[in-house]
Amino acid sequence: MKHKGSVNEFYKNDRFRREILHKEILRQDNFFQGKTVLYILLRFLKQGLLLLPPYCYLLFLNEVITKHNFQILWLILGFYVLIYMLKAFLSVLEKMVSNRIYPPMQSVLKEKLLRKYGEMDIKVLHEYSAGELKERLHKDTENVVLYEKSKLELCISVIHIVILTGILLYLNWILVVISFLLLPLSFIMTRYVKGRSNAEYTRKRELQGSYNDFMIHTMHFSFWKDMKANRLEEMQQKQFGRHWNGLGDAFLKAHICWFLNRTFLAFKDVFLTQMSLYLFGGILVVNQMGTVPVLLSFMQYYNDFTNVFLSMSDIWMKRGEQEESLRRVTDIYGIPFEERPVKITQLDTLELVNIDFTYPGEREQILRHFCLRIEKVESIALTGESGCGKSTLIQLISGCLTPERGEILWNGYPMERIDRKSIYETAGFLMQESYLFHLTIRENLLMGKIDASEAEMMEACVRANIMDFIQELPKGLETQIGENGIRLSGGQKQRLLIARLLLKNPEFIVFDEATSGLDYQNEREILELLLEQMEGKTFLMVTHRGTSVARCSRVVTL
Q1: Which of 114-128, 434-448, 535-549 has the highest mean pLDDT?
Q2: How far apart are CA 88 and CA 341, in angstroms?
Q3: Are the C-beta atoms of 116 and 332 separated by less than 8 Å?
Q4: Are 484 and 221 within 8 A, CB to CB?
């Protein structure tokens, strides 16, 4: 889906954003539509059964208690048993159908949003913290599905309320008027409390995003090493306490709002209104404007009415949080992106023309009128003092940063017109912060080529000179390596990253001092290994090692 126009114009129309979400994210296929129709049918059947017990009660009062017709007692009892058996059966079926609609719908929505993350430019992703993206993918997607379900529940409840109102009017319209006089108080109270609750849920969500960022950072193994080395345990506990206390406070206030609303409605409907109905109902009976059986039956139906009304109030209270989640998911999914029609399948030339770049908030310009042309099968060593812009240049080439002025041309095409996926399929980047996942060696290798065969993985590991180490492990390729390969040495980690790169087999290799943290011997071996394996490839390497520089066809100094 392509969107034209500015982001601000796109976000002005909230209804349009929701339509996009419903049509594109929660678009139901025939499977979901059929299940939803069945679910609605079961809900109506169940709600219809709930209308029968008060009628049986009225029949019992009129026929058995008033007229002493005990022969019909067993028929009434049979009706009660049959109704509750059918209700239990329909409840089981309803739950089974619901489990086949909403959990799969959540899974589909999470997959779509995760796919959207993959489609977003890196510079756009940088605008969001990891904790915030996690919260939108996890909690917000669940709330969006609950929002869809609540719309259905509200429609069913409204129809149930209308039917109950008709029955109550048929039994005694005077009591209906008396009971409905207090209904505006319920709407006013629910609307007021919902506004307060929404504010607390919004605050809780913001705090949850900050807490997620804190935990992602804290749970990283390298942070634990730094924390223990610098004796920061007490400070870390205090920060954890502040985050958790803030979350707890927001959660408590939101639930207090819900409790106050529910308590008010229960007091009004269960105590105040029912006492008034019994009082006026008794007056009507005394004045022969009603009967005791009708009054008691009316109260049974009114209890059902208040239960449905309380349920609708609960749904309405929760919709504040769900609507906020809907907005957040829509904001992500609806981010417009430029159409990039050009796809590259091989690298012929890469040219940087008059590149200027300054980091936001900084005065010093990192790159000024920088030019560089890289030809196919050329190996270039990029050198220079620390802070001169070598890593910045690599990030510009990879699309992580955007130059202020100038052009980056792949095969003569401006980078703005090139599909990013085709760039990453053609080029392989081994950065200073290249990442290994807390998975097995095999699963980490498959990140380079998802459909790689066993033979291809073995060959890549042999070429990266890590196969002997893997074979010595008890579980071999199935060995868990820990977060970011923490269970591997620095050299083993780099060799595994090279094996993953070799498995991908890109035409253009960019190497950004990924071995800077290793000792001289390890770094020399890995760089030599990398250069040997990259014959016939285009190679750009940021390095300080003279031996590596000597192996390159050209040296560029910043």
Answers
A1: 434-448
A2: 57
A3: yes
A4: yes
156, 40 contact by CB (below 8 A): yes
Contact 203, 124 (CB under 8 A): no
Q: What does the alpha-carbon distance between residue 36 and residue 100 come to, in Å, rounded to a whole number?
A: 9
Q: Are 391 and 542 in contact (CB under 8 A)?
A: yes
Backbone CA torsion sign across 406, 412, 418, 423 = negative
Tell me the residue type at 106: Q
CA dihedral over 148, 149, 152, 154, signed as positive or negative: negative
- For the stretch 261-320, pLDDT in tens is 667 666 666 666 777 777 778 888 888 887 888 888 888 888 888 888 878 877 877 777
Structure tokens at 197: 């609750």
Q: Long-range contacts for 151-156 (Cβ within 8 Å, ≥24 apart)?
A: 152/36, 152/39, 152/40, 153/311, 153/315, 154/312, 154/315, 154/316, 156/40, 156/43, 156/44, 156/47
Whole-number Å distance between alpha carbons of 185 and 166 = 22
pLDDT reading at 552 higher than 70: yes
Amino acid identity at 503: L
What whole-number distance in Å separates Cα of residue 251 and Cα of residue 197? 10
Pairing of strands 538-542, 379-383: parallel
Q: Ramachandran region of residue 465, left (φ > 0), alpha (ψ -120 to 50) or beta?
A: left
8 Å CB contact between 368 and 403:
no
List the 508-512 sheet strands across, edge first: 427-430, 508-512, 538-542, 379-383, 554-557
C-alpha of 289 from chain center: 59
pLDDT of residue 256: 73
Q: Give CA angle at 283 (281, 288), nearest 5°.
A: 95
DSSP state letters, 43-70: HHHHHHHHTHHHHHHHHIIIIIIIT--G
DSSP assigned state of 71:
G
Residue 21 confidence (pLDDT) above 60: no
**pLDDT at res. 289:** 82
Q: Which residues pair with 379 in a beta bridge?
A: 539
d(CA 395, CA 388): 14
User: What pLDDT, on a 0 to 100 scale, did the predictor assign at position 508?
Assistant: 87
**How far is CA 250 from each of CA 13, 134, 203, rounded to the nearest angstrom?**
30, 19, 7
The C-alpha R_g of the chain, in whole angstroms, comes to 34
Give how far Cα 407 sits from Cα of 121, 352, 364, 367, Å.
18, 6, 20, 13
| pLDDT tens digits for range 411-440 | 888 888 888 788 888 888 887 777 788 888
- Amino acid code (one letter) for 367: L
| Structure tokens that stand for 376 in this block | 């196919």
pTM over 0.70: no
Q: Could you tell me whether strands 538-542 and 554-557 are parallel, antiparallel, or unpaired per DSSP bridges?
A: unpaired
